[in-house]
Amino acid sequence: MDVAAHYREYPLGQFSIDEDRPMKVAVIGAGYSGIAAGIRFPQRVKNIDLTIYEKNAGVGGTWYSNKYPGLSCDIPSHTYQYTFEVNPEWSTFYAPCPEIRAYLERVVEKYRLAPHLKLRHELVHARYDEAQGKWCLRIRRPGQGRTKEKPFYEEFEDTADFVFCGAGGLSRWSWPDIEGLKDFRGKLMHSADWDTDNWREGVKDWKDKVVGVIGVGSSAIQMVPALQSYVGKLCNFVRGKTWLVPPFFVETLSDMIGRDPGTANYTFDEQDKEKFRDSAFYKNFRHHLETKLNSVHSHTLRDPEREVDDRKQFMVHMKQRLAKKGWIADHIVPGFPVACRRLTPGPGYLEALCEDNVDFIPKDIRRITPTGLETTDGQQYDLDILICATGYDTSYKFPFPVVGRSGLTLQQRYDPHPVTYLSICTDGFPNWFNSLGPNSLVGSGSLVILIEREVEYTAAALLKMQREQLKSIEVKREAVEDFDQYLEAYFPGTVYSAKCRSWYKMGREDGRVVGLWPGSCLHAARAFERPRWEDYNYEYLDGVHNRFYWLGDGSTYNEKYMSGDRAWYLNDEELDYPPAVTSHGSEQNQQAGVPVDAGAGIICRRSRSWILSASGFTTRSDIGPAREGPSAEAIAEAQARRGEEPDVDPEQFQDPDNEYGLFAGTTYEQDDEEADKIYDSVDRNMDSRRRVRRETRENAELAQHRSERPKIQQQFADLKRGLSVVTDQEWENIPEVGNLTRKKRRKDERSFVVPDSVIVGDRTKTEYESSLDTRQQQSGGFETPADSGTMTNFVEIGQARDKILSLKLDQISGTSTNSGLATSVDPKGYLTSLDSVVIKSEAEIGDIKRARMLFDSLVKSNPKHAPGWIAAACLEEHAGRMVAARKLIKAGCEQCPKSEDVWLEAARLHNQNDAKIILANAVQHVGQSVKIWLAAADLEQDANSKKRVLRKALENIPNSVRLWKETVNLESSASDARILLSRAVEVIPLSVELWLALARLETPERAKAVLNKARKSVPTSHEIWIAAGRLLEQEATANPAKPVEAQNNELEVVDRTIEAGVRELRRHQVLLTREQWLKEAERCETEGSPRTCEAIIKATVAMEVEEEDQLDTWVADAESAEARGMVGTSRAILAYALRVFPDKRNLWRKAADLEKAHGTRESLDAVLTQAVHYCPQAEVLWLMSAKEKWLAGDVPAAREVLEKAFIANPESEQIWLAAVKLEAENGELGVARELLIRARTVADTERIWMKSAVFERQQGRYDVALETVSTALSKFPKFAKLYMIQGQIHQLQNNYPAARASYAAGMKACPKEVTLWVLAGKLEELDSRSIKARAILEKGRLVNPANEVLWAESIGIEERSGGAAQAKAMLSRGLQECPTSGILWSMAIWAEPRPTRKSRSVDALKKSKDNAIVTCTVARLFWTERKVEKARQWFSRSVATEQDRDQGDHWAWWLKFERQHGMTEHVAQVVKQCITAEPHHGPMWQSVAKDDNNVAKSTKEILELVAEALH
Questions:
Q1: What are phi and psi of 372, to 5 degrees?
Q2: Dist CA 435 CA 456 (whole Å)
Q3: Which residue in 26, 41, 1096, 1197 is deepest, having the highest Cβ count within 10 Å?
């Protein structure tokens, strides 16, 4: 390729490097984020067309939308403002909403944002055009001529190169999910949808009203104290708990304003505001507040001690405020950590709850009634007004579709939880940045700081797009995944991960934290300072792929058009004056001449500008050289019009010819010149005197500096002189340190006597033989037979190379590291590495020699360092020099007699007898070492000797639990062990282990006494209480002949004991968490104490759980315990939950499923009997109960259950159909028919009519079935299955025209029912009318676009007609329309030739997102390749989820596979799992299961039939 030609083909950009291309930017929302963007974007990025779309009629965002009573900021007002726009006029410490809205309106007016604003313009759809690199926005606005009586809206399209979305995460409110909410006949309101701007005007008539407020979030906490004095009575319905912040800022506020505020929400008077108008004072005040606000991040990290302290502090504060009604504290003070939920100061809320006209009702709401509401305890509360303060939708899914690349919506990308890059953008959505998106809010600090940083970050991205001629900027997927991984790693270490329901976790108790930034506010601010542009992908404009396209045509704008300043780099705003260091060490700014502290780390303005530019933020140089500005005359004229004085040049005072003011215009005379000369002479003399003094001072400082810090040569001068008196013997005794630098050195030349043959061989080894041998001559002299010479053995060469590399690695890797002049040795690390050393080579021997010298130097330089002696001895041991090792360790014992490790190492290196002597000496020096006494006992052979040693040890260390345990373990007699343990607990009364061990050795009665003593000695031990419960349970169940009633009475004592234990532990400030108690319960279950396990659950499972979260929490606990195999624990949790929520049918269903999976038939029957008693309207529970009795063979009992179900649910079609099925499958066809007739009369549903027709068809009564269908169609003409049944019956009678008419009528009545189109197509194909079949399916695809079933059927027709090419083309079209279809991808795999199927399956898995059908196809591919284990794994994956297990075809393929390749156990396992799953779907499964010949066959029989039918 011609390189020059290649470069000539590259088109240069026809623009200057600093020519700002026009860009259109859309900002969504005019709250804090949108306003900041409207100010900063035009400032940072020139030549942009900016539009701000706001759906409301005014600016402010949430501060415009919300108007409820008491709405105010929940952080100090002076920290809730832009850094560049201060407001000293706040009226209160926590500013009310109208003031915040007014502040934002002033900002909009000051910065002239009105031309950019489009109010009452709502974004309803956004789509990214990949070809153009633009966002297509559909905007809704009020229509022209719209009136209040006849409102209507119009929509229009707009485009933008870049979208900045500042909609926020708390902008979409929602009603609570409470039964009967819309039935309330009073005034129903939501806090986020208040109906009046001035709330006081709206509530002036509420003096005699009863008002209910639901909630205890931020809205309710602000609303209740605001409304309390305006209403007759206020009822606050609360099911959760929350922390309210103590007045942390009162002390700071008191210090700054000079007096006690007296309240948390202090009102600033005119005197305070006057102080704030002093900019220096106000800046200092804000700085103190922000510092305080940014100092609480550590309280969000998990720290048990700090959490306890925080809880105590908050609890005391809340109880003090609730002193008038102290009982409220028990229902509002939570058990979860502080800051787990959003904290709010709530000034006045707790005080309002204590007022006489306020009722605090901590109950769960059952339903809303027309006159009020009813709580779960059955009490009715009549209300005139009901206010729901129940929060917002926190899923971060916009109410309008945002469609990115490849048709992916942001809602889909955020499923199951939002994923972002630094909370600001997401892959697949180029040129779309968010403010306050997922994981962007802060748990501490001011949110405004973060908003400003996000805006600056976005401005940097905009500037990069503009300057580098980028079409799109999109974050890389791996960067998003890495940030997601960081989130997953960060939040478990914070209090936000504790169990509490919070909008931080999308309203859930557990799960992913999606609302908060993973760190502090300051951490976030730093993170946005320096964009990592390498984390983004870029597309260039004009289809150019050269990354330097942005360099343009090689010129700047001012050069190209000969305008503006072409030496702008010399302007003051561009110059960067570095600080110069003076002689006395300070820095001086060269421009201003002002001394600067050299250690202050100050960065000048221009230097900082360069740093920001490198980070991606806008600077003067980024924007480019300044354009030509107005002339001096124009400036002077403008100043004159405004009445301003012209600017004075300070340099004019230095020029005698440019006098100003009084002496302006005077003549410069000779006297003036003589005066100037005299002054110049004085200046020179003064400079000379100052120079002499300065040089004298500097010489003195230099001499002092050299005396304090002499050079190395001077320091060693006296040592060098001392070397003259060193004797030769002293020189010889200096040890050789060896070469520790690892540098190559010349080896000593040594001579050896060798034979002559070696010399001759060495001489001829470089010679070349050019003659041909006899074999070469025989073969012509030009070619050599392959076996004539030696062949290269590459295996041996590889092995040799590996040996050399291994040797080099062994030499390099060691515990000795050399760095410069110092050598550091890690003795412990060297000990570890010696375990794997096998001395093989001279190099390794050399390493040992060097290590020996190092350790020798170490123990000599630091003889009191015990690890050094141990390491040196171990080195000699590994080198095989045991005598040297023992000498070294002996010296170590002498030098470090107080180190137990040295003595133990010495004992190890000697034989048993010597080791005894060594340890006998050791106990003289370290008699308190438990390790040494235990080692001494281990050296003894017989038990008595061991006992003597241990008892001697106990005399020296009587408080060692381990010594007592070892001593007791040696006793073979239980009585002797009991005596020892009795003595042990006397000596160590706080050892729980010893008390429990003693209790285990005693009889039950004496064990109770022991445990009582233990409880008194260690009142903080939960293990003792649990042991007491287990002891009582063991005593109650020991005798099987004991009456059940007596046994139950004794087991109830277990419950009371554990309950008393929990209460006592709480009294002694022992606060075990729920998780710890659940682990103890599981341990009891594992060790065979199920009743104790249940008692623990009863006493502790409700701890730390809000009432509103109880049901979800307990269900999650039960499921988690069941997953771990702790069935008893799961059963106990569900039993407790059912006592609290006996009317929750889902809870009964879970209990029944648990018993069905792990219990007995009797236990399941007992659960279902109770379930239908408490939930008689739960049809599924009645059906489960009847089915279990039927499966047990007790048909009369099943009938009895269904009869009771009829009484409770007389119009339930499920129960009617279950009764029909029961009678039909037991041969009572007449009874079944009568039941269907009655059901059609009583229930009269379309499904009952359908089942009636199917029943008659199964009995062969086609005419009756058709008559039934006709009647049903007159009642339910839109029920598609009736048309299917009618057509199938006609088809069975070979009446194709009638069947065709039935299907046609069905397709007309139910065009969206895909199965009708498929059946109609199959009928035409059966009638040999393939063309008509194709036409029907094509029409079906038009009516039902992107339907994979219709495409699959169309492809099937082509394949069955022999048109392979047409089928492949049809398949390609189908995949374009349904790119994620599992059915079509499976067909595509089988359509490929065998060699390419595997690669095609990889594509299919990616595109279909591991669809179960594709997974099953992959399993079949492995089957064809005889990869049995792989196939088995993939078959298992194809039925992994609940939805996949319903696919019967997958089970049949798996069974077919196991019959061919598996064992009998494998086949049985598949059948068992299939029966449990009870599948109902799958093409072949449905055709077999719905065959009239297979009626009443079991799941196993259907499975076998389907497996035989598959091929």
A1: 170, -130
A2: 11
A3: 1096
The DSSP 8-state label assigned to residue 475 in this structure reads: E
Return the structure tokens found at 324: 């008038």
DSSP 746-815: PPPP------HHHHHHHHHTT----S--HHHHHTTSS---TTSSPPP-HHHHHHHHHHHHHHHHHHH-SS
| Beta-carbon contacts of residue 382 (< 8 Å; ≥ 6 apart) | 210, 371, 372
- Write out the two tokens for 23: 């860009």
889's enclosing H/E stretch is: helix 882-895
3-state secondary structure of 1269: helix
Task: Check: CB of residue 249 under 8 Å from CB of residue 260.
Answer: no
Reported as type and span, the H/E element at residue 76 is none
> Cα(614)–Cα(533) distance, rounded to whole angstroms?
11
pLDDT tens profile 717-757: 666 666 666 676 666 666 655 555 544 555 555 555 556 65
Q: DSSP characters for 17-57?
A: TT----EEEEEE--SHHHHHHHHHHHHHSSSEEEEEEESSS
What is the DSSP pairing of strand 365-369 with strand 134-142?
A: unpaired
pLDDT above 70 for 257 = no
Q: Which of 164-168, 249-253, 680-684, 1068-1072 shows the lowest mean pLDDT across its residues?
A: 249-253
Separation of alpha carbons 1221 and 1237, rounded Å? 14
User: Which residues lie below 8 Å from residue 791, measured CB to CB, with a gap of 6+?
Assistant: none
Contact present, 141 and 119 (Cβ < 8 Å): no
Chain segment 24-39, per-residue pLDDT in tens = 999 999 999 999 999 9
What does DSSP assign to residue 1261?
Answer: -
H or E element at residue 365: strand 365-369
Winning range, highest mean pLDDT, from 555-559, 769-773, 981-985:
555-559
Cβ neighbours of residue 1404 closer than 8 Å, sequence gap 6 or more: 1385, 1386, 1388, 1389, 1411, 1414, 1417
Q: Can you tell me whether residue 885 is helix, strand or coil? A: helix
Give dist(CA 1139, CA 1094) in Å, integer: 13
- CA distances 503 to 158, 496, 526, 1148, Å, are 34, 11, 26, 29
In this predicted structure, the answer to whether residue 581 has a pLDDT above a threshold of 70 is no
Least trusted range by pLDDT, from 10-19, 94-103, 261-270, 1175-1184: 261-270
**Among all chains, which residue has been given the structure tokens 């009073």?**
186
User: Among 583, 582, 573, which residue's Cα sits nearest to residue 604?
Assistant: 573
Cβ contacts of 997 within 8 Å, gap of 6 or more: 965, 968, 981
pLDDT at 647 over 80: no
Please identify which residue in the block is written with the tokens 């087991």: 1051
Cα–Cα distances in Å, from 1032 out to 854, 1016, 1021, 1050, 1057? Answer: 64, 19, 18, 8, 9
Q: For the purposes of burial, counting CB atoms within 10 Å of the CB of 463, is it exposed (0-12), middle (13-18) or buried (19 or more)?
A: buried
Helix (H, G, I), strand (E, B) or coil at 529: coil
pLDDT at 1244 over 60: yes
Rounded distance between C-alpha atoms, residue 1181 and residue 1168, angstroms: 7
Cα–Cα distance between 1040 and 1026 in angstroms, integer?
23
In this model, does residue 126 exceed pLDDT 90?
yes
Per-residue pLDDT reduced to its tens digit, 776-825:
455 454 444 444 444 455 556 656 655 555 555 454 444 443 433 334 44
Question: Beta 402-403 vs 162-165: how paired, if at all?
Answer: unpaired
Q: How many CB atoms lie within 10 A of CB 952?
A: 14
Q: Which pairing describes strands 122-129 and 117-119: parallel, antiparallel, or unpaired?
A: unpaired
Mention every residue, 6+ apart, whose C-beta is less than 8 A from residue 449: 83, 521, 525
Give me the residues paired with residue 825 across strands: 816
